[in-house]
Design brief:
mainly beta, Pnp Oxidase, Chain A, three-stranded antiparallel β-sheet, EC 1.5.1.37, NADH:FAD oxidoreductase
Length: about 180
């Protein structure tokens, strides 16, 4: 292994690998916040439910979202250069299901669920989101079956409440533990 100020180079060695099934099964035990990620370009909108969103750094304010390459969101977000992360409150399980494509609602009518507005970029913002993070696309990266969108947060709106979680392949809510 060589270490420099900007890069870490690891010698390639034969390492055991795991199956995709074992990997996803293991990660299903983590508890993640649930967000609906949205974008708009011209007269088109796209959105999906994700649990793969996290902060990258605070200065500049950057976050990342992972989206399957087959999802229409990818092309639309690339074209528009913007997206929003709507962190869902615990009472928005039905909306999360709609944007996950699990209901019988057609993709083009997903935005009929919920009340939407915009902030600085014009990406759709859910009015009752626990947190809305309005982003311009900073960069993207393709890894395997997914595109990672790095977003610079240019506007934010917050409310109070409990977040909707996803763990063990189902939705969950926070149960506060007394300190």
């Amino acid at each position: 292994m060589q270490l420099s100020a900007t890069t870490l180079v690891v010698d390639k060695v034969d390492m055991p690998s795991i199956t995709a099934s074992a990997f996803t099964s293991a990660l299903s035990q983590a508890a993640n916040g649930v967000s609906v990620v949205t974008t708009a370009y011209e007269d088109m909108e796209a959105g999906l439910t994700v649990s793969s969103m996290c902060s990258v750094c605070a200065d500049p304010a950057l976050l990342l979202v992972c989206v399957n390459l087959d999802n229409p969101f990818c092309a639309l977000a690339e074209q528009s250069g913007r997206f929003a992360v709507n962190i869902l409150p615990s009472h928005c399980m039905e909306l999360a299901t709609v944007f996950a494509g699990l209901g019988d609602q057609p993709e083009q009518s997903r935005f009929d669920s919920g009340i939407w507005t915009t902030l600085s970029t014009g990406a759709p913002i859910l009015t009752n989101a626990l947190v809305a993070l309005d982003c311009k696309v900073d960069s993207t990266l393709v890894k395997g079956s997914h595109r990672v969108f790095f977003g610079e947060v240019v506007d934010v709106r917050t409310t109070s409440g409990e977040p909707l979680l996803y763990t063990d392949r189902r939705f969950a809510v926070v149960e506060p533990v007394p300190l």
